[in-house]
Amino acid sequence: MAAHNDTDVAPSVESSPKSETTTPTLSVYGNDLEKGADPEKSTEKPPATGPAPTTPAIGPPPDGGAQAWLVVLGAFSGLFVSFGWINCIGVFQAYYESHQLSAYSTSTITWITSLETFVMFFCGPIFGTIFDSHGPRKILLLGTFLHVFGLMMASLSTEYYQFILAQGICSPIGASAIFNASVNSVSTWFAKRRAFALGVTAAGSSLGGVIFPIMVTKLIPEVGFPWAMRICAFLILFMLGIANATLKSRLSHQPKPFDILGFVRPLAELKFALTLAAAFCFFWGMFLPFTFVITQAERYGMSERLAGYLIPILNAARYVSLPRSGITFSSDAALSIIGRTLPGYLADKVGRYNTMVITTFFSAILVLALWLPARGNVPAILFSALYGFGSGAFVSLAPACVAQISDLRQVGVRNGTFFAVISFAALTGTPIGGALVPDVLHGDYTHLQIFCGVVMITGACLFVLARGVVGGFKLNKV
């Protein structure tokens, strides 16, 4: 079968010594089926005699079926406890500033929450390599232990360095293992419907981002901070039981020697490098609203009780019922799923890069046009809902774009390189934002919001260039 582009190289198959006809091989690239490869309709027949291929041909992903959707269920559970937990960092930022770490500056406290995001993504190359060599089982078990253990230790923490070690390092290392095992496993089961499947998977992070902050804010007054953290850890352990029972890879994994250059080679590809640069800039600002939307709203008059619901609203991309707040909204839970799955579904129809360009521009414009001038309750709530919908698409579309330009046998390493590089944006973005607002309760948020909007707009523009390199600048599916 002819290669579809300059990088499509199918697994080698030995031809039969008794026949010139060779067994058709299948590309394992993420975009092979979209370019016409359909081996089930091929008229070529494998030879009736001859030795078996030395390297078995990898068939096309099934794009559905009970086993594939069970993997999605496990990945949904994995992102619920990994990215979903990271999505509620704004709750801890606000809580630590007024309780255990009230003696520290905002910029200092943000290192705990920014470390969570940084470590989760920076460990990607390590767990991506293990995934490519051994599959998801080992890293999932390791991640389960580290994530739960880290949160249990955080429940006992009282000093700054203890929170750094438990919540900023140990727990997110486990979350990284879970995240990489989940996303990479789903990518091996889907091709034509990959963005949609990853969108369903990413809905787990949305649901986790809704449930965890509400749990934390409700449980702390009832049972105290230590037991609130432990109850969250027990819920995480239950969800990871589902993930461990259902997650598996479709590929046959063989141990590979460690190759440090394997992480660097993708950077030499223009389409990968541009995609990575675009994601870095967008990611640099993406988490700032998650971290500061609560304190910014309180700065301009929102009650502490109502502001506590902004993170769940942001993660759900929907309005909720706010008791005794004087404001009542529809609580249609389906919108929480739509906010993650709809962009993925559209991406499979109109193109992953096309959808990424639209959603990144939408998110950046919201920051500059709505969050920047917001001075009341309604604009803050409206921004949280719309921004959660727009920015959430990045979680599912980023690995779908990487898989589209990658050999699936290397998807673990390439996703690892991708997320490791953008982790530095997550590490530095929040402290920069904290430094731009020295006094979160009385200061001016304008500089933070401008920084956030500008870097996100830059990322969206770079996604346009990446789209052009991958599929041209005509109005077509890319």
Automatic annotation (TrEMBL):
Keywords: Membrane, Transmembrane, Transmembrane helix, Transport. The keyword Signal does not apply. Residues 11-25 have a biased composition (Low complexity). Residues 70-470 form the Major facilitator superfamily (MFS) profile domain. This is Major facilitator superfamily (MFS) profile domain-containing protein. PROSITE patterns: MFS. Residues 48-60 have a biased composition (Pro residues). It is found in: Membrane.
